[in-house]
Amino acid sequence: MTTLIDRYVYTVLRRVPEQQRTDIDRELRTSIEDAVEARVSGGAPPDTALQQTLLELGDPDRLADGYADRKQYLIGPDLFPIWQRLLTMLLTVVLPIVVVIAVVIQVLDDPAVGPIIGAAVSSAITVGAHLAFWATLVVAVLERTGVTRSALRGGTRREWSLDDLPRYEPRAIALSELVAGVLWPVLLIAGLVLQQFTFTDVPVLNPDNWTFWWPYLIVVLTLEALYTVWLYRRGSWSRAVTAANAALAVLTTVPLVWLLAEEKFFNPAWVSTQDWGSTADPLSWLTGIVLVTAIVGALYDVIDVAVKTERARRGVHTPVPGTGAEYTNPI
């Protein structure tokens, strides 16, 4: 559990340069403890003394701007934190999804390496620029029309309070990881269904597998999404989480590897309609890439979850995202 002081300090640290965080952490904690001690010596209850001290320090985002000597011109200090978090979410969650979708569409249209790289780069630059521009424009317009951060939070104008502090409770995955973990299976299921009818005149994947394997894969992908929701709500890593993740990896990867090894994954009719240039055996080449990707991805995921569970079981400190501080994430 994080204390009220931890929550305040972490909120300050996440908005200052990394090289300053250690000194500011020590300085701010000492300042808070001294102020609390002085109030307690004057007769105030410890809890009341702490709350009064933090309220006197004020909004931690503004305090962080003072530590960092940050000049903010286009977006002022009141809405700057909201703009920063919005832009970070758009560029780290939305942009990668759009780029992958663009690459998949390009692969289905023309599997040559050059156009694929071009689609990835152009979509990343174009979409990234649009996301940054529109996010900045919207926040700038809101600020110049008198909308405040307090109005965005609660719909009414109010001062910053201790209730506004993030809790920083140890969680297995962040909200952005929950969104990605649910969105990816949904996109894969949509792609699996749509490729049968819309992407090309001939289905990309073997239509014979609709008798069992494609419906089976849809069920497993749905379980993957439910597993992500369960992990987010559970809030911590455990051996049960490791076992569930490994079971899902087996349920997904083993049939996939078998279909690829038997060359029953891709539709031979679709392969024969594509221009593969000088590639002698495009089906084997394509199958090999997907096969290696599936195996490596599954192994990495299983090992990664197992390591996180072991770290949690041993009580190893885990970084607080964006702050340079640490907490212990127990099972």
Could you outline the blueprint of secondary structure elements for this entry?
Layout: H1 4-13, H2 21-41, H3 46-57, H4 60-68, H5 80-109, H6 113-144, H7 149-154, H8 175-194, H9 213-234, H10 239-261, H11 268-273, H12 282-313, E1 317-319, E2 326-328
Antiparallel strand pairs: 1-2
Helix pairs in contact: 1-2, 1-4, 2-3, 5-6, 8-9, 9-10, 10-12
Provide an overview of this structure:
It contains 12 helices and 2 strands. The protein has a two-stranded antiparallel sheet with strand order 1-2. It is mainly α and 331 residues long. It is 67% helix and 2% strand. It has helices spanning 4-13, 21-41, 46-57, 60-68, 80-109, 113-144, 149-154, 175-194, 213-234, 239-261, 268-273, 282-313, and strands at 317-319, 326-328. Helix 1 (4-13) runs antiparallel to helix 2, helix 1 (4-13) packs across helix 4 (60-68) and helix 8 packs antiparallel against helix 9. The chain is elongated.
The chain-level mean pLDDT equals 82
Instruction: List the secondary-structure elements in sequence, H or E.
Output: HHHHHHHHHHHHEE
Into which percentage range does the β-strand content fall?
Answer: under 5%
Low-confidence stretches: none
Distance between the termini: 12 Å
